[in-house]
Amino acid sequence: MTITVSNNTPRVSYSVAQGQTQTSFTVNFEFFAEADLNVYVDDTLKSLTTHYTVSGGNGSTGAVAISVTGATGGSTVVITRDIALERTTDFPTSGAFNISSLNTELDKLVAIDADVDDTISRSIRLKDQDATASMELPLKASRVGTVLGFNATTGAVEAGPTIASVQSLADVTTSINLLGTSAVVEDMGLLATSAVIEDMGLLATSSNISAMALLGTSDVIADMALLGTSAVVEDMGFLGTSANVTAMANLGTSTVVGHMAALNASGVISNISTVATDISNVNSVATNLSSVNDFAARYRVASSEPSSSLDVGDLLFDTTANQLKVYKSGGWEAASAFGNLSADGTPELGGNLDVVTHSIVSSSDRNIAITPNGAGVVRIDGNVDISTGAIDLKNGGTQSYIRFYCESSNAHYAQLQAPAHSAFGGNITLTMPATTGTLALTSQLPTSGISSGNVATFTSGVADDDFLRVNGTSIEGRSASEVASDIGAATTDDATALAISLG
Known about the structure:
By secondary structure, the protein is α+β, with helices and mostly antiparallel strands. The chain is built from 16 helices and 18 strands. Among the domains are: 5-121, no CATH class; 142-167, no CATH class; 172-250, no CATH class; 289-338, no CATH class; 444-501, no CATH class. The protein has a four-stranded antiparallel beta sheet, with no helix packed on it. Strands 10-11-12-13 form a four-stranded mixed beta sheet. A three-stranded antiparallel beta sheet has the order 2-6-5, with no helix packed on it.
């Protein structure tokens, strides 16, 4: 397509409000390839594919897809065009050629001209009506460490004052401004009075000249340099106020001079230095003086309990009982060292925990876990009463068991142990017998004959005076006629015949 130069500003800017997210930005100028676009987010150049993708182009407008969330104060997204200076089509010297390719090449040239024009319009340049002057920078050796300057006659670019000099001037700007204040101007007017002139004449005496010679020493010069700082100049301005002039006059009285002489004693100076070193702490105490006084009234150290000036919450360290006490509505009581355990991440007991008539309970159906460290065990001395009637024994990788020790120094134990995981076909329940007796072990069961380790059981059909027949692990009741039938004997009611048939 053909590009209209006046409508082809190759630059567009967007603002993204703080905390807001925008993912698509319209490119309202024509471009030909994805690489023709530069995308900046808050002055940072982003990378194609890595940070954003491009749609459109090929001589038309398009869009940039990139996720931008506004930073503090908002973010700015700038999209520019920068077409590479190259030709992509070579036309034949004769014969037909592709008009579309020609238009594309011409469009690119116009677009490149627009890119260059945008760059020039954003650069330092002379106005058309200005006289010719060189805008070429001086050599690096001449411009390093300087500010940009312009020649006083030609207006050409040249190296200006050093950056250090400009910074030094900026540092004393405040002091220079003070010289123009009415107070300083008035003070300089006083220098022309006869009294001041007379005083300046005294400066020419030999003793004063010697004293002024001392002003040239390095230490004094350094001190005078300090006098020129903005902070000291400001302080000297305060000294000229009427209140401070009066105060300085008072310093000359004999009483004050005597006090200052006393302050000059070595011990006093040392104490003053100590106070000066800890002045922040002194100021903190002064600021919180009421709290300090309140603490002194509430906390006492004595060999017996005070009986006056008492308030609820007062603390006492009883040196006789070697104990901290607190004054409550009922009088002095020992302060408990056992408070809310939630405030201590690793609480420790200094002695036995006596719950008295209370219990250790949990809230909101929480479990109570007692976990010993390492190879330690949870040991309960004395009888154990579990009111809920249920005990779960769980482990960390081995079969659970209970050991019952004998009465003689715990020398022997009988162990009740769960089967191995591989032996389970599901959860099992072992119900204790309802009568007193001794449980038999599998080793005590018959190893041959009826059961081969199984327990034989009677069927429900067994009655008094029945004969018994073994059927697998079941013992069945049989009548006389059933027994005769079982052995193939003639059926008869004659007991004698039955006895003969049975041998």
